[in-house]
Amino acid sequence: MNVSPSAIAAHNDRLAAAHDRHFRFLADTLAEKGLDAGTLLDKINAFQIAIPSWALGTGGTRFGRFPTGGEPRTLEEKIDDVGLIHALNRSANSISLHIPWDIPRDVAAIKQRLAGHGLTIDSVNSNTFQDQKNQPHSYKFGSLCHTQAETRRQAVDHNVECVAYGKQLDAKVLTVWLADGSNFPGQHDFRRAYDRTQQSLIEIYEAMPSDWTMLVEYKPYEPNFYAMVIPDWGTSYALCQAVGQNAHVLVDLGHHLPNTNIEQIVARLLHFGRLGGFHFNGSMYGDDDLTTGSTKPFQLFLIFNELVSGMQDAAVQNPDIAWMIDASHNTKDPVEDLLQSCQNILTTYARALIVDRRKLAQAQEDNDAVAAEEVLRDAFFTDVRPLVAEAVRRAGGAIDPIGVFRADGLREKRIAERGRFAVATGL
Ligand SMILES: [Mn+2]
Known about the structure:
The chain has 15 helices and twelve strands. By secondary structure, the protein is α/β, with parallel strands linked by helices. The chain has two domains: 1-90 and 257-427, Alpha-Beta Barrel (TIM Barrel); 126-252, Divalent-metal-dependent TIM barrel enzymes (TIM Barrel, Alpha-Beta Barrel).
């Protein structure tokens, strides 16, 4: 059901003449600025983005959901869909699992399937934001922060169980996002809720193997609308410091209030060596799950500019960052949206790579605000899409991944095999 290399090659052949012309022009333009296209291609190729299992089904809101059809019904089918995305763009070589929906039943078979697609498991994500059937203690009033010890115990045990599933599949990252918080003033003792959360995280951390990383995600509101226990990067950072050296902050682009300066947050965390994970999506108002870079491309560029700046600075002691798309799109075909998100991410990364850092540093030293901004604008307005297409093509992917997905009828094939009303498990 997935696409064949020959179908991709045939599609690329049709686009090759125009693509080669555009790429040569860009490579020459970059060379004039002292940039080597080959080096940039290698960097773009090395940038791999994890796809979460929950993004493969059509998203929705509490008002309704309008499935595309042919959604993956099992972990195996989710792996196949990520395998398809990776075959098309060679930039999505891992999948994030969500427990309890993605519990591997036949570990050997799952590993074989992953290997067949050239995929690995990126991270395991716990879920204590809703109750599962027959669960003894409810998370209605929180999980790791809960006032009752037995509820906290259950939530800690769930996270430890997630690590055990991850170990079976050679994952090394546990992502913790907590829905814990309060909906009404006075409901929580803020300090005690924080202390209980910290203690629970320490217990989980101590149960993890020493080569594992814990990522602690924050979110300012929703599902609790008065106060979240971990609403911001500062709280996440403080918890990570208390938990241990392998606990790091995870930045999710949608988990910020409008107009928050996310690029500055990124720079701070890199400076402190605590930026461990990154979730891509786009937003207008809140956690909207829009396509990455769809509404505020310049903001995404400024964020990537800080990421690249930090990654290239030898003085910055930060772990490798785990990149993942965290979106659950309404309206669009989920596979097409993920392909589009990857393209936007790679394009923005490429733009950040061509920023003239020496010129920028000089302008900053000279307090020349105009010159500094012009350096950024020059990179942002350079059309680097041929560079991304060439990187993907050289790795065996498609010059136009969405074009191949459509031309090859890959959604229709999924609907034929899985059914029009097949609904993805999970969120
Ligand atoms: Mn997230």
